[in-house]
Each structure stands twice: as C-alpha cells, then as structure tokens.
Specification:
InterPro entries: Carb_Metab_Reg_Kinase/Isom (IPR051804), Man6P_isomerase_Firm_short (IPR014628), MPI_cupin_dom (IPR049071), PMI_typeI_cat (IPR046457), RmlC-like_jellyroll (IPR014710), RmlC_Cupin_sf (IPR011051). Keywords: Isomerase, Metal-binding, Zinc. It comes from Fibrella forsythiae. By secondary structure, the protein is mainly β. The chain folds into two domains: about 10-225, Sandwich (Jelly Rolls); about 245-330, Jelly Rolls, CATH 2.60.120.10. It is about 15% helix and about 35% strand. The radius of gyration is 20 Å and the shape is globular. About 40% of the residues are buried.
C-alpha cells in the first residue's frame, strides 16, 4: 500500500552556492572522496531527472527509486490522467536553492523547442522566497519593450543587465516563470523551486565569473535567442492573498497548480477530487502529516513529502504554525 513518501536529498555543489542549506534548513552536506562539500547551491528533493532520481527515505519502500515506484504503481502513485499524459516520467522537480552569489542570467526553452532540440520537456517554474538578506533582489523578464535585435545587441556589448527587470525579494514572495522568460536569482536568496522535470538551461551571461580552474563557464547565447519570450509585462511578481488557516492559490499553469497553506490549527485535506499526486513542501515552521492506515510523517522547514494519488486525504497538524506549498498536476 502506498503512503506519503519522503526522499533523500541530492546535494549540488555550485559555483554560486553557500551554506544556508545547512545553517537555515539544517541539512548536513554529504562527504565525498575529497571531503565534505565546501558549499551547496541546490538540493533536489523530489526528482525524476535521469541520473538524478530520488530514493525513498522511509517506510516499506525505503531504498527504492522514485522511478521504480512509478513503474510499479503507475496511476496509483501519480493519478490516472497524469499517467496517461506522462507515462513513467515523473513530471515535477522540487528544489531548494541557496544563492550565495548571483546565478547566471538564463532562460529555459518551452516544450516544443526542448523536444525538438533535446528530446526533453521544457522548463516552466516557480519560486517561493523562504529567506532573503537585506536588499536581496532577482530578475524576472525585461524592464521595457525589447525587440530580438535589441536583445542580441545588448548581449553583444555587455549591456544585458540594463534591460532586465530587477526587483527586491522578501520572504513569502512568489514568482512564476513560464518557459521563455529571462531570469536570474540574486545573491542572498534562499528559495523553494517547483518546476517541470527538465534540466535544460541556456546561460546568457555569467558576470564574467571564473571557476576554480580559472575558466569561464559555457554560455548558450545563440540557443537562447529563439527560446526567449520577448513580451514585456508591467508586473512580474505573482500576487496572492496572505491568509491564515485557509488555503490560497498562488500559481495555476498547465504543468502544476500551487497553493500556499498557512495554518496554526489542524486541517483535513480531502484529495478525492484530484486525479494527481500532491507534493507538500514545508517552507516555514513544522508539521505532521497523518494519512489513512495510521501512517504519519513529520516535516520541518526545508522538507517535502509526496502524497500518492491513492491516498485520498491527509490531516496536517502544525507544530505551532506552518507554511506549506501544496502542488499537483491539473
């Protein structure tokens, strides 16, 4: 019988990574052949990306990969319509990202372009800001109407930052980034990212930074040109109501729906109306998830659980108070 699944995080050493995954989220960096990771830019919490498949951490399925569980249970795990749409490919990827330095300016291709070039899904994503140093900011989109030629010229003469929309970010802020939107995460931000299962990034500009061997990182400026959506928006931030003890929708897209749950009292969530798995990401506080069959799992800030489609209801019991992102495939 399926139950709420938790997974062992996959730690990613990044040139821009820091120590908040450890100091704020309490995750011990793993030790490799050269000793402990010096820093950590990302943890992949729930992943079906080939070569980076999550492994179940607890319960009767402990040690099994997400891929093996999906192949064994199919619609029971992900839902009938999700299984019909994606088969044995798990459709979402959940990460925590610690930007100790600015990430590269980048863009992700949409499904059509990613399939054509890489035989992959595109990458639409969202960010939820968990912690922000004073003045920390990020980029989402352009700050004015920009033509393709203007963009190409700005990249060529290193004035790309002049046309980017930069805004300060604060805990609780949400940014939805459809494939094609130019973006980067600025230094001083710790966030949760929910995205399509894809690891395709076109790096546009990397602030001329060099790796530990003195090399510049590869750029993908030509690939990026046709991947970018040049549409200008007056407001790129995702606005949602901040309510207590009531689930609030923040993002609705073709790929995932995400609700923000801020509760300081017990709540029953009935999922019988959904034909999808549910991912719960704890971004503040802690809670216990109680499911049918007497199974319960504790989550604290920086931890996630996958509720299989066959588990039709859970009770969320906050330890004081909690903020949880609740995501599923529409």
């Amino acid at each position: 019988m399926l139950y709420p699944l938790t997974f062992t995080p996959l730690f990613k050493d990044k040139i821009w990574g820091g120590h908040k995954i450890k100091s704020v989220l309490g995750k011990e960096f793993p030790t490799g052949p050269d000793g402990p990771l010096p820093n950590c830019g990302e943890t992949w919490e729930i992943s079906g990306v080939p070569g980076n498949i999550s492994v179940v951490k607890e319960g009767t399925l402990v040690g099994e990969s997400l891929q093996a569980v999906l192949e064994r249970f199919g619609p029971e795990l992900v839902g009938k319509h999700v299984y019909e749409r994606y088969g044995n490919e798990f459709p979402l990827l959940v990460k925590f990202i610690d930007a100790n330095d600015d990430l590269s300016i980048q863009v992700h291709p949409n499904d059509e372009l990613a399939h054509k070039r890489h035989n992959s899904f595109g990458k639409t994503e969202m960010w939820y800001i968990m912690q922000a140093d004073p003045g920390a900011a990020l980029n989402s989109g352009f700050n004015r109407e920009v033509t393709k030629d203007e963009y190409v010229n700005a990249v060529a003469d290193n004035t790309i930052t002049d046309i980017l929309n930069i805004e300060e970010a604060h805990p609780g802020d949400v940014f939805f980034l459809p494939a094609g939107r130019v973006h980067y995460i600025g230094k001083g931000l710790l966030l949760a990212e929910i995205q399509q299962t894809s690891d395709i990034t076109y790096r546009i500009y990397d602030f001329d930074r060099k790796d530990d061997k003195g090399n510049l990182r590869e750029l993908h400026t030509e690939l990026a040109v046709d991947a970018i959506d040049y549409t200008y928006h007056a407001d790129y931030k995702t606005h949602y109501e901040h309510k207590l003890n009531e689930g609030v929708n923040a993002v609705t897209s073709d790929y995932f729906v995400t609700n923000v749950l801020r509760f300081n009292e017990e709540v029953l969530h009935d999922y019988t109306h959904l034909d999808s798995f549910v991912i719960l990401v704890c971004v503040e506080g802690s809670l216990t998830i109680q499911a049918t069959g007497g199974y319960s799992v504790a989550l604290k800030m920086g931890e996630c659980a996958l509720i299989p489609a066959s588990v039709t209801s859970v009770t969320l019991v906050p330890n004081g108070s909690m903020t949880v992102l609740e995501s599923y495939v529409p």
